[in-house]
Amino acid sequence: MSPEDFAGEPVEVWPENWPTFSLFCDLQTQWRVGAGGPVGLDYNTLFHKMDRMQLGPDEYDHLESDIRTMEHEALAVMAEAD
Q: What's the predicted TM-score (pTM) here?
């Protein structure tokens, strides 16, 4: 594959966002799906993965919040595609 095989411009992930981006990518197959399509991530899997990351309480809360933001935006994009 080459860059031409992908639509749109490449997006740079800032270093401070890399842990969230990486975790979100790890969860790419963990969407809960209802009759109308995706409804959200499987939080059992999210919390299991986060527990294994040995985060402090503030880091844990911050990462969870960031994932919720990405989930919200991903759901909005997926809804537009329909």
A: 0.85
